[in-house]
Amino acid sequence: MWFDEPELERGGYQFFLFQENTPCWVDSFAAALEGGYPKLPSAPPEVLENLRNCQPHLIQDRAWVLMYYSMVLSQVSNKDSDRHSIKKKLRRNIWLTLHDARLLLEPSELHITALTLLACNAEEFTTPSLCWMLAATACRMLQALGINQKRLDPETRQRRKMMFWHLNLLDKGLSIIFGRPPTFHRAMAKEIGMPSLEQLMASQPRGMSSGAPRLFGTHYFHQRLLLTQVMGDVWNCLYEDAEPDVQRIERVSRDVDGWYQRARTVLDASAISEKPFLEPAGAASIDIALHCLDFLHHYIQVMLYRAYPGTRSNCVMSSKAMLRVLEHLVSDGDEPYMLSVWQLLCCPFTPFLELFSEILSNGQGASEGNQETLATMQLLLTYLHTMSPSHTLATKLERIAEVFVRQAEAVIDPQAIKSIY
């Protein structure tokens, strides 16, 4: 994944160029900037021209180069998963771009966008720790720039306010997954204030088609932002308490349920009103967004319930419900409301391991309940296998999950242990 100094020296500190692929890649890059959410800056004509001419070294602000190669690596991973040589060269180009220390040290909105895109999209380059570091650096850059200062003009304040809330969404999500403290303190959210629906509507992508669910999308992201307020309490409950506090767990769990019920009420109503006017792809995007909401709700409940042995049955029930959602999160194209790759691939392992632990510890052998639990565990294998052509990480995780499934089969049927070795 990484390149040490000798390997970079052998490459001559020069970018690998891809003359045959470049025209298509640059067009896809420009389209992604137009259709990305939150609204992304448009690349200047001279940047696109230098990229088309295979002259990335002439682009002064390397943030554009970093965004370009990050997006291209993600696209190659999705469409050309067997082309390992191209991926390796693209990873090297990203690493070479990061040799410009300004990307990590000089706060700017463009640098924040580039680091965020790299953290979220190029999982074949980043690791969980690196993803966390990139996201944390982006958050600190925004703090250094300022968000609500009076010296800023209204347009800049509004733009940075939206940037804060989307970074806060990423920050809180990664903190739960990786067990790291959030970079943004909860007091910042109260100080900055939640964006209105009108402001969220204005931040819709410029390139969004007329058949896309604009009103639903506004409500969806508003509900996701509201969830960040609850997730701060979830993190404190999971990682700050020295011992599990059952009363606090139950209280936070009720808050999560309350958010989910309100969110579903709003989004179901929005879906009913907007779906009849959408193209099939837009209607399918709404369905995926609703399943993403279910996924997040079940995941947070699993994280809370697993912290206290007295809620074991609830943990198992939520784990099964979450794994049953996975088949609905597979999409052939880019979805505007899809979760990050780290959420899609890492989060399901938590309920999966909880079910594995349940089979090992309940002493029920080949009971009907254990058979059902095993069948639910196997849903993760199917999901990861489906995701493997798009994500190398899914292939690695599939192999790991298969070992656990075989061990669970051996517990249910001891004769099956012979097939493991």
TrEMBL record:
It is found in: Nucleus. The keyword Transcription applies. Pfam families: Fungal_trans (PF04082). Keywords: DNA-binding, Nucleus, Transcription, Transcription regulation. GO terms for cellular component: nucleus. SMART domains: Fungal_trans. One of its GO terms (biological process) is DNA-templated transcription. GO terms for molecular function: DNA binding; DNA-binding transcription factor activity; zinc ion binding. CDD domains: fungal_TF_MHR. Residues 131-201 form the Xylanolytic transcriptional activator regulatory domain. This is Xylanolytic transcriptional activator regulatory domain-containing protein.
